[in-house]
Design brief:
Length: 397
């Protein structure tokens, strides 16, 4: 029974309706005589209650409750998509950090302002790509967040498109009551899903949408864009257009040709025009448990900007910088120069390249080519990390 429906009923009708609903749920016989007496003169209300079809005037109108207006909505399913390496995960982690302190995420994203506006809230982060020890915890610390408010679920958690998986996810939401739930990326939490199948995508996402409504939480799923030039934004996300269609709100993260990063509105049919919101990612140090320096990065919001969705549509393979060298050549130069003084941790070299605005995909391709050509070598280091070094080239003399 909706709140508005109940508001139109007297106490006898509410009692009769509640008893009938309880009987139906318990498999018992409904007292139709009691219902008939209670709803005498209003048979439409009794019919609506039990047919499962409500006239719209029985439904109470409500404002959308935003987590980040107008990008992420509470009680709804939201999408975040974009190319690999532009900072999609980082954007959501910055929102998690703000929530953990009771800050207003909308003010942070749209104005770069840190305003304490309420009590600290939890976030549930389900991720395979963001390692908790080397990425997630250091980043939250670097952005001043409270890591005790961020709950992490690794990728071996049950899948969202299985009955058992949905039950365990719903149990975690019910137990911890997070304001934000993130699947990063959603395909790591699905089983045997064809990303190009509308039926498969809907079977995975529709139950999550129901969970968002039931627990009034903001559920966000990340999808990587396909490598295609031109076309509509919703046709780039993941495969099937249903990746975007199933969401009620969301944003796309991207990077312009000159290296600026921003989010733009990807989905919200009722929203007025909203400017893009720019951010940057900077390298920082945080202190580890034993007082050691841990290299990580933090995201800084720069506020609304003049970037347009079309500014993300450029072909990196054909672009060049002002000196005539393309981004792949620049990445190669940065890597070689960084290693001339000796071997370095791979993550340090990667960060030096990414901080210049070069994408992760270009970095990956350049490192592969340098390794294939025998110019760099990777070595396994402690704690699962890797180092890089130059391979001494034979002289021609």
């Amino acid at each position: 029974m909706t709140k508005h429906f109940a508001a139109q009923c007297n106490i006898h009708q509410i009692t009769a309706a509640a008893a009938a609903q309880e009987a139906m749920l318990g498999g018992d016989e409904v007292n139709h005589a009691q219902l008939k007496r209670a709803f005498e003169g209003r048979p439409d209300m009794a019919a609506a209650l039990f047919s499962g079809v409500l006239p719209v005037d029985y439904i109470e109108m409500e404002q959308v409750d935003w987590l980040v207006e107008p990008f992420l909505a509470k009680g709804k399913l939201n999408i975040v998509h974009g190319d690999a390496g532009v900072g999609k995960s980082f954007v959501l982690q910055s929102i998690c950090a703000a929530l953990s302190l009771g800050a207003d995420p909308t003010a942070l994203v749209r104005r770069g302002a840190f305003n304490l506006a309420g009590k600290p809230q939890k976030a549930l982060y389900c991720s395979v790509e963001a390692d908790a020890a080397t990425e997630l915890r250091p980043r939250i610390e670097a952005m001043g967040g409270d890591p005790s408010k961020l709950l992490h679920i690794p990728a071996d958690f049950p899948h969202v498109n299985t009955t058992q998986g949905r039950a365990r996810i719903e149990g975690a939401i019910e137990a911890h009551k997070p304001a934000l739930v993130i699947f990063d990326p959603i395909t790591s939490f699905t089983k045997d899903l064809d990303p190009n199948s509308a039926a498969d995508v809907r079977a995975a996402l529709d139950p999550l949408s129901q969970m968002a409504r039931t627990y009034d939480t903001c559920i966000v799923y990340l999808v990587h864009d396909k490598k295609v030039q031109g076309g509509k934004s919703q046709h780039k996300a993941g495969g099937s257009a249903q990746w975007v269609a199933a969401a009620r709100a969301g944003f796309r993260a991207g990077q312009t040709q000159d290296g600026r990063k921003a989010i733009v509105l990807a989905k919200w049919n009722n929203a007025s025009v909203c400017k893009a919101c720019e951010y940057r990612i900077v390298s920082v140090l945080v202190m580890g448990a034993n007082g050691e320096d841990i290299k990580t990065a933090r995201l800084e919001w720069l506020g609304e900007c003049d970037i347009l969705p079309g500014d993300f549509e450029w072909d990196e393979r054909k672009s060049g910088d002002k000196d005539g060298a393309n981004k792949a050549e620049r990445a190669e130069t940065i890597i070689v120069e960084a290693l001339k003084a000796g071997s370095k941790l791979s993550e340090e070299v990667d960060r030096a390249v990414l901080d210049t605005g070069i994408s992760f995909s270009t970095l990956r391709n350049v490192k592969w080519k340098l390794g294939k050509d025998g110019r760099i070598r990777h070595h396994k280091a402690a704690k699962g990390k890797f180092t890089m070094s130059l391979v001494e080239q034979p002289s021609n003399g």
